[in-house]
Design goal:
The protein has 16 helices and 9 strands. The protein is an alpha+beta fold.
């Protein structure tokens, strides 16, 4: 698995994984120090969770915010309700269950109604737990003592539920790797010492809150640098990639052929499917190329440390892959389910049945030399793209190396700049 800047392995390890591993190691090495800081740790933990919650609201991460509410409820129960230390493992399990249920929350938008529902459910959860503890605390003690002994290790209901929640979070991350999924997984692992009734429960809650806050920041960073529809790096990432290029590179500009016709004939949802299909092929371009979505139906591929011939071959390969990958376009009649949440759109002539068609792209590609600027290469590749469109589409056209831009003339000492 690659360790590129946005690979699933990197999202899993950095930064949350490294933070949790380092903190847990420090707690294991110096437990007496953590024990002497119980009371100030409670105050600092509450303040940290409050700051992290405000950050989650600002970054519009609903799942992180709900996770922080769960941590805050647990901290309040541990510090205000005087739960015996022997029952702290059950508090940790309740947080693990909450984190697992967060997998059902849609993180695409921030909904205060969902926050109200979640807060109500947490109130019921902790009220039932505290009432059960007051009614018969011996039940929880007996469950802690009831263990299944295997040849290698022993475990009880607390460990079983905690591990089950962790496996659910891990499975969700492997299915759809994202920063929040990684944060929830590592936030749960940060609570692991509390399963054994460790005195570091408050410190672990603080650590879990930090991890969730970092997850919200990572999610915001991903949104800023990636295109939400296709998952490819966006315009900002493209501009930064251009600024980091060396002397030898090639740039390809890719445009979907007849994209407007797809939208007009089949609807914008089908147009979005076309863009995702093209982006999936561009993401696997060879030759060290990295694909970006620049906007609309236009993409770019940056071949760092590559000459024009090598980049041309790989651009031609990806063009063929897109052409040969069949596409089934479905008209708006594919679903008979009524959607009252959607506004009625004016009717227009569209295909009502599925149509098997193909998607093609035109590509213009240009190479840099030691005097070229990235903007010149992009402009030359764009001109080559228009030539590919003019020559029949579904082709790759080369461009000559653009001449370097003339340096701007500095005004003479006595010459005033022109103000427009």
């Amino acid at each position: 698995m690659s360790l590129s800047s946005h690979s699933p392995l990197r999202q899993l390890i950095f930064p949350s994984g490294l933070l949790v591993i380092a903190a847990l190691c420090s707690l294991a090495i110096a437990p007496p120090l953590a024990q002497t800081l119980v009371e100030p740790a409670e105050i600092m933990c509450a303040a940290l969770l409050a700051v992290a919650a405000m950050l989650a609201v600002r970054l519009r991460s609903l799942r992180v915010f709900l996770g922080l509410i769960s941590l805050g409820a647990s901290l309040a129960a541990l510090t205000l309700m005087e739960i015996p230390a022997a029952l702290h493992p059950f508090c940790t399990v309740l947080i693990a269950i909450d984190f697992a249920f967060l997998l059902l929350v849609d993180d695409a938008f921030f909904d205060w109604l969902a926050v109200a529902w979640w807060s109500g459910l947490l109130f019921v959860q902790w009220a039932v737990f505290l009432a059960a503890v007051r009614w018969d605390a011996s039940f929880f003690h007996s469950e802690l003592a009831n263990r299944i002994n295997l040849e290698v290790f022993s475990f009880g209901i607390v460990e079983l539920m905690f591990v089950s929640a962790g496996l659910a979070l891990l499975g969700r991350f492997l299915f759809a790797a994202d920063a929040v999924g990684s944060g929830l997984l590592w936030g749960l692992l940060a609570l692991a010492p509390g399963v054994r009734g460790s005195h570091t429960s408050v410190a672990c809650i603080a650590l879990s809150g930090i991890v969730l806050a970092l997850a919200a920041i990572e999610r915001s960073h991903w949104i800023a640098y990636h295109d939400e529809l296709t998952g490819l790096p966006g315009r900002r990432a493209f501009n930064e990639a251009l600024a980091a290029l060396g002397e030898n590179y090639a740039i390809a500009i890719v445009d979907v052929d007849h994209f407007k016709k797809f939208n007009d004939t089949f609807g914008h949802e089908t147009g979005d499917q076309v863009l995702r299909k093209v982006a999936a092929q561009l993401a696997h371009v060879g030759g060290g190329g990295r694909a970006f979505r620049c906007g609309g139906e236009e993409f770019a591929i940056v071949f760092a440390e590559s000459d024009l011939d090598n980049a041309f071959d790989h651009a031609e390969d990806v063009r063929l892959n897109i052409e040969e990958d069949g596409f089934i376009a479905r008209g708006p009649a594919r679903s008979q389910r009524k959607r009252p949440d959607r506004r009625e759109r004016p009717k227009r002539a569209m295909h009502q049945r599925a149509v098997v068609t193909s998607v093609t792209v035109s590509i213009g590609i240009a190479e840099a030399d030691d005097r070229s600027q990235p903007e010149d290469v992009v402009e030359a590749a764009d001109k080559a793209l228009y030539r590919a469109k003019h020559n029949g589409r579904n082709r790759v056209e080369r461009a000559l190396t653009p001449p370097p831009r003339a340096p701007k003339r500095a005004p003479a000492r006595n010459e005033l700049p022109v103000i427009r």
